[in-house]
Specification:
Layout lengths: L1 H18 L9 E9 L2 E4 L5 E2 L7 E3 L3 E4 L4 E6 L4 E4 L3 E5 L10 E11 L5 E4 L3 E5 L4 E8 L2 E8 L2 E5 L4 E4 L3 E6 L8 E2 L6 E3 L4 E3 L7 E7 L7 E7 L2 H5 L6 E6 L3 E5 L4 E10 L12 E5 L3 H5 L27
């Protein structure tokens, strides 16, 4: 009996080793940059600088992506996981000595993620996050003293450096402090539903103080305020970059914009709870501002190239803020 039990235990141990996923080794390709805007730098795992990730092909274990101010990047892993890396963010691919099976690390800044066909383990300065296939959420590392972890879809397990475990369900988030102590689990607001203007609406250019457009969406019961982000082009919109405008603290389910130059604009809105935690963004919509009147009269037409246009917002017209 004892011999049979030992043989069975040995077989179970062998199978567990054989079935364990093989960990990618340093320098092994695991992902690629699929979109970027602005200043994005890449450091190779061996310490040598790699300047342009768009021209480097695949990203490897040990590579570190550094995204600059008002910039962004999208990373797609072979597993199908997608990271949208925000401004002033530093992400390293692969694990650590303590967590060798980690898929990626957020050393600073903000990342929105969607997990592909296998579980992801993510390391931050004060906690790890484990999310199954199909989950999505956000990680915001404001510095060594604070990390916000949110789950938009699915579920996630948080284990802090202090040894605390927090299970996040869909639309839940938690803040983890410098010493690894988690706060209370909070409910995130639902993504708003955009009402107007209808997608791809063409609007005439008007001079201030008239409003160029009034954005409107369905109110979100869990939302205390709203956050509107405006981009100049589809690449910025894909990366969730508020390159044209970012308005915070909006208390009603509408927001007027003034002084927009001719061109195409992409916008989205998120609801923010009483503690300042934002839920997932709405779907992105777009509208077009027509040419200046003198351009129509002069027969030039066409307006301003939306990739080159610069929105001018009347001072004091909206509580806009460009993140630093």
């Amino acid at each position: 009996m004892v011999g049979s039990a030992l043989a069975l235990a040995s077989m179970v141990a062998l199978w567990s080793v054989l079935l364990r996923p093989r960990l990618p080794q340093p320098g092994e390709p695991v992902a690629r940059v699929t979109s970027l805007a602005g200043s994005v730098g890449l450091g190779a795992g061996d310490g040598r600088p790699r300047r342009d990730p768009a021209l480097q092909g695949e990203l490897s274990v040990g590579d570190t992506l550094q995204v600059g101010r008002l910039s962004g990047a999208e990373i797609t892993f072979g597993s199908g996981s997608i990271l949208r890396v925000g401004p002033e963010t530093r992400v390293r691919l692969g694990g650590t000595a303590e967590h060798p099976s980690a898929t990626w690390q957020v050393q600073s800044g903000s990342v929105r993620f969607s997990v592909g066909n296998q579980e992801d383990l993510v390391v931050t300065p004060t906690a790890t996050l484990t999310a199954p296939s199909g989950a999505s959420g956000v990680i915001d590392v404001a510095g060594p003293g604070s990390t916000e972890l949110g789950c938009f879809r699915g579920r996630a397990e948080i284990v802090t450096t202090a040894g605390a475990t927090v299970m996040l369900r869909e639309r839940e988030a938690v803040r983890v402090g410098e010493r690894g102590l988690p706060g209370e689990t909070q409910t995130l607001p639902r993504p708003p539903v955009i009402l107007s203007p209808p997608g791809q609406t063409e609007l005439p250019w008007v001079d201030v103080p008239q409003a160029t457009v009034e954005l409107a969406w369905e109110p979100v019961p869990e939302g205390d305020t709203y956050r509107v982000a405006l981009s100049y082009n589809s690449a910025q919109a894909r990366l969730l970059l508020p390159a044209a405008l970012e308005a915070w603290g909006i208390t009603e389910a509408r927001h007027a914009l003034r002084g927009l130059d001719p061109g195409r604009y992409f916008w989205r809105v998120a609801a923010v709870n009483e503690s300042g935690l934002a839920g997932a963004y709405s779907a992105t919509s777009s509208f077009v501002v027509g040419p200046f009147p003198e351009e129509v009269e002069g027969g030039e037409g066409g307006g301003v190239d939306p990739l080159e246009s610069n929105a001018k917002v009347e001072p004091g017209a909206s509580p806009h803020r460009i993140p630093q």
